[in-house]
TrEMBL record:
Annotated protein name in UniProt: Annexin
InterPro entries the record matches: Annexin, Annexin_repeat, Annexin_repeat_CS, Annexin_sf
Domains (record comment): A pair of annexin repeats may form one binding site for calcium and phospholipid.
GO MF annotation list: calcium ion binding; calcium-dependent phospholipid binding; phosphatidylserine binding
Xref: Gene3D superfamilies: Annexin
Family that this chain belongs to: Belongs to the annexin family.
PANTHER family registered for this protein in UniProt: ANNEXIN, ANNEXIN D5
Keyword tags: Annexin, Calcium, Calcium/phospholipid-binding, Metal-binding, Repeat
SUPFAM superfamilies the UniProt entry points to: Annexin
SMART domains per UniProt: ANX (SM00335)
A biological-process GO annotation: response to heat
GO terms for cellular component: cytoplasm; plasma membrane
Keyword Cytoplasm: no
Length: 316
């Protein structure tokens, strides 16, 4: 469930483009006006505003935003502007070729559905001229790299149906490949985690716990490490409860000294139009404070205003 709040009576994309142009005029930028418009328009509405702006003023809106804004507000709004698939392609290109961030690349790939990944791969090639798989191979290695490549290329059902016999067999295979033996058979973990649907994997996790008394997540964390562990845990948690997974990622980004603004921006921007209400509910349940309150205490200025606008009302 999305968190985005859109006004009941919308101005036209042409009017929005004119108001944005007005916000850019004169000395300095009226950031409040920019936020009031862009933080309350969905992906298709933002695309229409961009088209109108280009027609009316013969320049790209994102180019103007880039020159008018600065700091984390600029980063957040520029990431907000594209549609989800194009945005994911931008995040991955940056994480794999410019500002290397394998944690971010792992999060994006392992939390997306097969149809989202298919669209993402096509767009990545169209936008950047190279293949996502090639850039992944250049930056990753070992079990981690093999798992991500398999996860990108293996067709998986997006339905809710599961085969109970296969579920029990997979739970048994994972136990035999991990906790039951000395050392770990990583190949079995790679094969099952990259080849099974979310519904199937969630059922495997439940069967594992019922049969062997410990959780599959605990087994993964005990048997693997590093980016490979991150990828397996992301796949598993997004099969069971994506809201809980992203609530944890957000909590970690704000925990301790300083804030990981890159992660904070990425997760809020990419999930606002998908499942942010579930993430907010999980955050409150697990951390005994609202996500809005946490973001408010870790950010400031127009950057804070923009992120809180995306998060929507603060339900305590």
């Amino acid at each position: 469930m999305a968190a985005l709040t859109i006004p009941p009576v919308l101005s036209s994309p042409r009017d929005d483009a004119m108001h944005l142009y007005k916000a850019f005029k004169g000395f300095g930028c009226d950031s409040t006006a920019v936020i009031n418009i862009l933080a309350h328009r969905d992906s298709s509405q933002r695309a229409l505003i961009e088209n109108e702006y280009k027609l009316m003023y013969s320049e790209a809106l994102t180019k103007r935003l880039s020159s008018e804004l600065s700091g984390n507000l600029k980063k957040a709004i520029l990431l907000w502007m594209p549609d989800p698939a194009r945005r994911d392609a931008m995040i991955l290109r940056d994480a794999l070729t410019t500002d290397i961030d394998l944690k971010a690349a792992t999060e994006v790939i392992c939390s997306r559905t097969p149809s989202q990944l298919q669209h993402l791969k096509q767009l990545y090639h169209a936008l950047h001229g190279g293949y996502l798989e090639h850039d992944l191979q250049a930056q990753t290695s070992g079990d981690h790299g093999q798992l991500l490549l398999a996860y990108l290329s293996t067709p998986r059902s997006e339905g809710l149906e599961v085969d109970r016999r296969m579920v029990d067999l997979d739970a048994k295979s994972l136990f035999k490949s991990g906790e039951k033996r000395l050392g770990t058979d990583e190949k079995t973990f790679r094969m099952i985690f990259s080849g099974r649907s979310r519904a199937h994997l969630a059922a495997v996790s439940s069967a594992y716990h019922n049969t062997y008394g410990s959780t599959l997540k605990k087994a993964v964390k005990g048997e693997t490490s590093g980016y490979f562990e991150d990828a397996l845990v992301t796949i598993l948690q997004c099969a069971e409860n994506p809201g809980k997974y992203f609530a944890k990622v957000l909590h970690r980004s704000m925990k301790g000294l300083g804030t990981n603004d890159k992660t904070l921006i990425r997760v809020i921007v990419t999930r606002t139009e998908i499942d942010m209400q579930y993430i907010k509910a999980e955050y409150h349940k697990n951390h005994h404070k609202t996500l809005n309150d946490a973001v408010h205490s870790e950010t400031s200025g127009h950057y804070r205003t923009f992120l809180l606008s995306l998060l929507g009302p603060n339900h305590r």
